[in-house]
Amino acid sequence: MVKSDPALSNTPMNAMSSSAPAQSRRPALAGLRVLDLARVLAGPTCAQTLADLGADVVKIERPGIGDDTRPWGPPWLPDEHGEPTRDSTYFGSVNRNKRSIAIDLANDAGAVLVRRLAGEADVLIENYKVGDLARRGLDYATLSALNPRLVYCSITGFGQTGPLRERPGYDYIFQGVGGLMSVTGHPDGVPGGGPMKIGASIVDLSTGLYASIAILAALRERDASRLGQCIDMALFDTVAALSVHQAAAYFQTGKVPVRAGTSSAGIMMPYETFKCADGYLIVACGNNTQWQSLCAALARDDLARDPRFATPSTRQINRDAALAELRITFAARKVDDLVAKLDAGGVPNGRINDLKQVFEMEQAHERGLKVELERSDGTKVAAVGNPIRLSATPVQYRSAAPKLGEHAAAVLTDWLGASTEEIEKLRAAGALG
Asked: How far apart are CA 98 and CA 35, in angstroms?
């Protein structure tokens, strides 16, 4: 259940016209059945995206333990009395709109049960180590023989091929191994210099998004071929793709990109964070018009006339001199005053907000970036909304992250037509948690 609020439909206020009103059309992925065998972040992010778009996503979890991230607290999701449960907010952040069933894959009856569910599924998402599911008869080769229409998405650290395919890893590791930390952080030799990871789990999240794109592409192709396929997603591949323009420059010049802190190593100047009298402000000037407007807003006509700063190239060449002058000016002024002047002049800028400030912004309210969902016990849980905006089939928020195994009977009845007696036999055999 979801709190009644127009924002929760994720329909833009100025939604584009469509052939039928949103409320009369099925969700974009209605009728799609997805088995989510993934843990932690990349795979669950992918599955949640599909769930938000209307797919019936069934999360397969380990009995008694569940997803690896359920115990990753505090903070914890609350129970109906407001007391902390043993389900973390981390888990809750990427498992909404799903149904949970606890199945022991190491149990023969449990593995058979998952094979039966896979026979009724359109999509299966997993992030086990290479070869793990094959030992249980849950690999693509086995399941596709049972269900040729199955789209099977594997998400691993290094992919299914190559000498490192069996190595495990988490987001942080791939930010380093994949080169992202080599271009993130302040340069060596300055205070605080050295490699730095990005604050968000950017590799996991990006891999999840790429995986959802791949799945939708495979489903589109299945419309013509009537056959599924195997998708091989790797965090290592994704983090390399995130360095797309730096890599292009390296391929062309052979020069390895370096860390530039809060500055840009590119031709834009200034593309910089400035310390102001009461905070920080980012300014980005991509052309001469914006540079001239910046100088006018700061009342620095001397910089506008200086031949050293006349073009993007000369500003980059003489960036140290330009930045020294700009830092003096910014340091003497307050952020709000600067934002007003720069906005009036059409200069791209943005203050550095903490998350409290982000979700208090009128823009965030208007866009419905914070949503409130309910768990089965009526507990309300706040979450970040999905950024996808569809005019006719908007994202829906049906429920918060499930309790471990709470939908076993419903899923087995819906997908397999199982009777109460059969479900009890599965419990007695140790297949169900």
From this structure: 10
CB 180 within 8 A of CB 236: no
Angle at which helices 408-416 and 108-120 cross, to 10°: 50
- φ, ψ for residue 202, nearest 5 deg: -65, -35
Helix segments in 149-271, DSSP class H: 171-177, 202-225, 235-242, 244-253
Determine the 3-state secondary structure of 190 from DSSP. Answer: coil
- 307 φ, ψ (degrees, to nearest 5): -60, -20
What are the structural domains, with CATH classification, of the chain? 6-242+369-428 (3.40.50.10540), 271-351 (3.30.1540.10)
Backbone φ and ψ of 116, nearest 5°: -65, -40
What residue type is 106 in one-letter code? A
Which residue from 42, 206, 53 is spatially nearest to 126, judged by alpha carbons?
A: 42
Q: Count H helices and E strands in the chain, helices first.
A: 17, 13
Cα 230 to Cα 312: distance, rounded to the nearest angstrom: 47
Crossing angle of helices 408-416 and 420-428, in 10° steps, is 120
Instruction: State yes or no: is 204 an active-site residue.
Output: yes
Tell me the whole-structure pTM to 2 decimals: 0.89
Residue burial 23-50, b: 16+ Cβ < 10 Å; e: rest = eeeebbbeebbbbbbbbbbbbbbbbbbb
Catalytic residue among 36, 52, 67, 204: 204
Which residues share a beta bridge with 60? 101
Ordered per-residue pLDDT tens for the chain, 433 residues: 334 343 345 544 343 433 444 457 999 999 999 999 999 999 999 999 999 999 999 999 999 999 999 999 999 999 888 899 999 999 999 999 999 999 999 999 999 999 999 999 999 999 999 999 999 999 999 999 999 999 999 999 999 999 999 998 999 999 999 999 999 998 888 888 899 899 999 999 999 999 999 999 999 999 999 999 999 999 999 999 999 989 998 999 999 988 888 777 666 789 999 999 999 999 999 899 999 999 999 999 999 999 999 988 899 899 899 999 999 999 999 999 999 999 999 999 999 999 999 999 999 999 999 999 999 888 899 999 999 999 999 999 999 999 999 999 999 999 999 999 999 999 999 999 8
Pair 186, 193: CB distance under 8 Å: yes
